[in-house]
Amino acid sequence: MMAVRSRKFRLGDVLTYIVLLAWSAFVLFPLFWIATMSFKREIDIFAYPPKFLAFDWSPDNYLDVFGLLQDGSGSTNFPRYFLNSIAIVGGALALTVLLGTIAAYALARLNFRGRDAVGFLLILIRMVPVLTVLLPLYVMYRDTGLYNTYLGLILVYLFIGIPFYTWLVRGHVAAVPKEIEEAAIIDGCGTFRMLFRVVVPVMMPGLVSAALLALIYMWNNFLFALILAGPDLLPVTTGLLNYLGYSSDYGNLAAACVVTTVPVILIGIFIQRYIVGGLSGGAVKG
What residues contact 171, with CB distance under 8 A and at least 6 apart? Predict the structure, then answer.
């Protein structure tokens, strides 16, 4: 009887692993395909049957995307798009972390009228379809001179980041023992000094996780820049549209997609070490 149960248990494990492997292959195959296509020449991209690994690997697509290929297509705007993304997302993320941390602390610790309504509003903002606010934003930006400006895009990216970040960090603030704050106040710390010198280091793993998710949402945003920015101010995700058309260069498009995706992946891998270290070393001992 035990042998039958053990056999069924092992069979269930095998089926579970098969399903997980199949799902992983389904999710990862497009990434594998776009990564290998970025090293292919045009003849290999359209080859049939498809060439997965047996082709002449070449970095020409990457060199062409950055304008470094002598016999390439010539001028390219991709480096400008990439720098635009760094400037816009970097500025918006810095303001999101600063303002969102203060807002999350206020929602978690301060008792004021309408606190729950503000918390519900944060969720409601995340539920609002982007298309419903694009036209009003465009009219407002056109009339105020914010259209096609770094400041305008940073402000609209805050609309993406602050509600999401604040809602996540609010829970981490509530988990910090109040005794730590009381001890800091007794030692003479003001509210902001106590927040950034005492509370923030304790909940740093949560802040890093929330900031990483906000970074991903901002970096991947497409519609806001498409409507509110001109050709010279497009971020990299929107600038990829220029590689599509009647004579699309799929090799360059694949290389641009890889360069666009890799920074977020590397940041996630790099920060993950600090999240684990913070969870193990930042615990409060009683």
Answer: 108, 206
Domain with CATH 1.10.3720.10 in the chain: 78-281
**Which pTM value belongs to this model?**
0.82
Q: Counting Cβ atoms within 10 Å, is residue 161 exposed (0-12), middle (13-18) or buried (19+)? A: buried
Model pLDDT, residue 165: 92
Q: Report whether the peptide linkage leading into residue 50 is cis, meaning its omega lies within 30 degrees of zero.
A: no
| Residue 69 · residue 63 · CB < 8 Å | yes
Q: What percent of the chain has pLDDT over 90?
A: 30
Per CATH, is 78-281 categorized as 1.10.3720.10? yes
In angstroms, the Cα distances linking 76 to 67, 239, 260 are 6, 11, 15
**Residues in Cβ contact with 225 at an 8 Å cutoff, skipping those fewer than 6 apart:** 88, 153, 233, 234, 235, 237, 238
Q: What is the pLDDT of residues 74-97, one digit of tens each?
A: 567 888 999 999 999 999 999 999
